[in-house]
Amino acid sequence: MTDLDPTRLLFGLDPAGVLAMFWFVVLIDLPRYTLGFLVVVAREVVGPREAVPPFPFTPLVSVVLAGHNERASVARCVRSLREQSLPRIEIVCVDDGSTDGMMNELRRLRAAGLVDIIASSGRRGGKSSALNLGLSMARGEVVITTDCDCTFDRDAVHQLVAPLADPAVGAVTGNIAVREAGGTMLESLQAVEYLVGIGLGRRLLDMLGQLTCASGAFSAFRRSALIDVGGLETGAGEDLDLTLRLRRAGWTVRFAADAWCVTDVPCAVRAFVRQRTRWERDALRLRLRKYRDPDPAGRGLRRGEFLQQAEFVLTNVIPTLTFPLYLLWLVHLCGSASLTVIALVTLIYSALDAVAVLCALAIAGRSGTTRLLPYALLCGPFQAYVVRGIRVAAYLQEWIFRRSYHDTYVPARVLGRAPRY
């Protein structure tokens, strides 16, 4: 361990010394997102924007809502769907064994002519089984899945369905915003995260043909594509699982940046940690266990699937597990000056993510997003230390203890029958 004078440390480094000290940020985090985001913004600002003509693709669209104890929110979601500009929409609602009277609310909505089909699983079976029940009754050529706590811009379904005019496209995922953006600090930081990670990050992945998750909160699927892969499989992480199977079956997955869905996010720290831990465990299980082989059928290495696996390892797994080691290395190297150095690292993250937030705001095209500007400098530390810390814990839980197989998000009797990988 070396004791360095903080002032000498900050002002005495040459460019090579800066690279040696801050190699993790410069070599991993800077090219990982910031440079790619600038490319996206340049393309959006300079290049021609794709215009969606009025109703270029007009199939019957079935929206399947599956919920457990969602009585308080389902009516708001249904009304938002009935206000859509796309004329041919069928709404199918499934009560997944609720105990809060959700089925009574669905009967009321059907009697009012707001819902076309309702069903109840009787006993809770998890989101996958409830959605499959809804899909079996839906008549549409296109099927949209969403959550009961979501609402939508009036042209959201129109924008979401439009890319399916291309017969090679099997799924389209929409843009998602946080309802209480500008509410509590935790909600606002999640709003910034969604704006950057979804609104900007998925634009980048769409450009590269590497979208791997059609979000269960708001995505459209070609019915023939769903039939092709056998619908949703039992278990958690059903949206990621379905998207990976669609990609492997040869279907293209697209992002509709102008299809806006608004959703609720956790406002309590404990609920936020539980949600993110579950998401991260599921991602690791599905991508590095269940779908670790990019060529399961032995038909020759598929470049796209190899690249998406490599992207996950290089931009998620390696940085997540390496970052704590990097911080420990800085403490060992800098001794008493380590707090100063780590503070400087934090400032660099703040600056990088502030650039990302500004990029996202520049192309969002959505009113009200500028109120998130005060949180731009907090986004970097939040992602680097809080979200990455949750991800480290989730990865260790999953890789060592396979905790995703004991997640209460899916009933134990159902999860116990799911294949283990």
Tally of individual domains:
2
Give the number of helices: 15
Query: What is the helix content?
Result: 40-55%
Run of helices and strands: HHHEHEHEHEEHEHEHHEHHHHH
Spatially, the strands of the biggest sheet line up as 3-2-1-4-7-6-8-5
* CATH topology label of the largest domain: Spore Coat Polysaccharide Biosynthesis Protein SpsA, Chain A
Class based on secondary structure composition and strand pairing: alpha/beta
CATH architecture field of the largest domain:
Alpha-Beta Complex
Give the terminus-to-terminus CA distance: 43 Å
The residue ranges in which pLDDT falls below 50 over 5 or more consecutive positions are: none
Q: What percent strand? A: 5-15%
Main sheet summary: 8 strands, mixed
Silhouette: globular
Keywords:
421 residues; alpha/beta; Spore Coat Polysaccharide Biosynthesis Protein SpsA, Chain A; 2 domains; 15 helices
Describe the structure in your own words.
By secondary structure, the chain is of the alpha/beta class. It folds into two domains: 6-44 and 302-412, no CATH class; 61-266, Spore Coat Polysaccharide Biosynthesis Protein SpsA, Chain A. Helices cover 54% and strands 12% of the residues. The protein contains 15 helices and eight strands. It has helices spanning 6-11, 15-21, 23-46, 71-82, 102-111, 127-137, 156-161, 185-208, 223-229, 238-248, 269-290, 303-334, 338-364, 376-401, 412-415, and strands at 61-67, 89-95, 117-120, 142-146, 151-152, 169-178, 218-222, 252-263. Strands 3-2-1-4-7-6-8-5 form an eight-stranded mixed sheet, sandwiched between helices. Strand 1 (61-67), helix 4 and strand 2 (89-95) form a beta-alpha-beta unit. Helix 3 runs parallel beside helix 13, helix 8 packs across helix 13 (338-364) and helix 12 packs across helix 14. It is globular, with a radius of gyration of 23 Å. The two termini are 43 Å apart. The mean pLDDT is 88.
